[in-house]
Amino acid sequence: MDRRSMLRLSLSAAAAACLELTGTQKALAFSDTSAFAKGVDVSTLPQIEAFGGKFYSGGVRHDALALLRYNGADSCRIKIWNDPGNASYYPSNQAVAGYNTVAQAVALAKRAAALGMRILIDFHYSDWWVDPSKQYPPHAWAGLNLTDTCTQLYAFTTDALNQLKAAGVTPEWVQVGNEITSGMLWPLGKYDQLDNLATLLKTGYNAVKSVNSATKVILHLDSGGNNATSRWWFDAMTSRGVQFDVIGLSYYPAWQGSLTDLTNNVNDIAVRYDKALMVVETAFAWTTSDGDSEPDTMTTAGTTGFPMTPAGQVEFWQAVKNIIANIPGGRGKGVFWWEPEWIPVAGAGWKAGAGDEWDNCTLFDFHGNALSSISLFKS
């Protein structure tokens, strides 16, 4: 046997070992939807792999998603953009073509489901990133009135979910919008157009439920530590008859308050609206160094007091998980680490031609070696 064949055999054996799960773990992932989700958002993984990113544990190469699953991550969040990488339109032209599409989401969801992971689909309803500072509509929807936009939103949502269903994947959760604290599909559904925003969210809810009534609809804000904003937003939507199943929050200690702020907010709003609650995005830095020339976005630990080390990542995770798990009435349902696999790889930056802003918040070092903190999901 030549060296190349021996290497392939070694990698196959290692991958098989990495994928080995107990019957209990598999049953939990597939059937116990009441279990506390310990999740990861690995939406950038296909792009990292395509541009040459590799992952290792103990010096042996492995599939990153399988490594995360083996180390206790039981749920997978995947974002969807409408038409990323279309050179004729801004901001679509800022994205690398072919990534974070519906087709990509289906393929990644199949990988995750094959590992026994529960699936969360995150619709941005945009051709590129959206957050409270920007909510660009897909270029094909730009300028449409409310009725026509709702028609497009319903069709896009149901088509994507039906493609997932045809591939054998039914998401447990679906986000209608991403970090929509300031609204979505601007200017139509901006924060100063709350009636329009409510109509768009009702359309998204109905679309999700039409494909599978058991799928839980998440409304996601970036206001993890901001109770006043959370109350204002959910009061506005519930008073307009918007239905949803889960409150989703982002919580990054560098930007969204203290752990005490998070505690006070989640304990209040989960009870106030009598809803399940999840932190669908969080992370913490393992180093103050930078893996490439792109400046990192998270450069402070906020007020947590935890060191920016792998051990600090574990402490941070445990603190956030305990806060959510102890929400009154068992309403806390899970926490997701955002992009733990986003190691610095040329071509897999935050936009076309750019570098990696997140390489100090991963659960792998700059060369793809698993950090000791990768096992935090087991805690």
Automatic annotation (TrEMBL):
Enzyme class: hydrolase
GO molecular function: arabinogalactan endo-1,4-beta-galactosidase activity; glucosidase activity
Keywords of the record: Glycosidase, Hydrolase
SUPFAM superfamilies: (Trans)glycosidases
EC number in record: 3.2.1.89
Biological processes annotated in GO: pectin catabolic process
Catalyses which reaction(s): The enzyme specifically hydrolyzes (1->4)-beta-D-galactosidic linkages in type I arabinogalactans
Family listed: Belongs to the glycosyl hydrolase 53 family.
Protein name per the record: Arabinogalactan endo-beta-1,4-galactanase
Organism: Trinickia terrae
Lineage of the species this protein comes from: Bacteria, Pseudomonadati, Pseudomonadota, Betaproteobacteria, Burkholderiales
